[in-house]
Amino acid sequence: MEKDLVQKRFLWGLLLSWTPWVPTLFGVGWVVVGVLNSKATGIAVVAGGIAELLVWWGITATLISQIAAIIWLARSFSTTHIWRSLVAAASIFASTVTLFLVCAFLFWGHRIWEHAASR
Length: 119
Known about the structure:
This protein has helices spanning about 1-20, 20-40, 45-75, 80-115. By secondary structure, it is mainly α. α3 packs antiparallel against α4.
């Protein structure tokens, strides 16, 4: 039993330690592609790319943390602790609303960006 718990903690720690690198690597790739496509140089190009990287990293971190929170809170329901279950249900609702808003903003932002680019 203890060995399984240690294994789970290790896997969660491994996952959480490497998760930030995924959007970071994609962001660095976008910065390089943006600089090569625009043939521009200077600190403004690099700053714009880094800002985009941080935005995507923040969105990704928000999505991951909200999904993890929903999973952990769903596992914490108890028939003996009614207040804890009520707080968990309210928190799951708040996390679901956050996920919906982030996904809606990403969807509509992408649609607006496509519409502006087609002009």
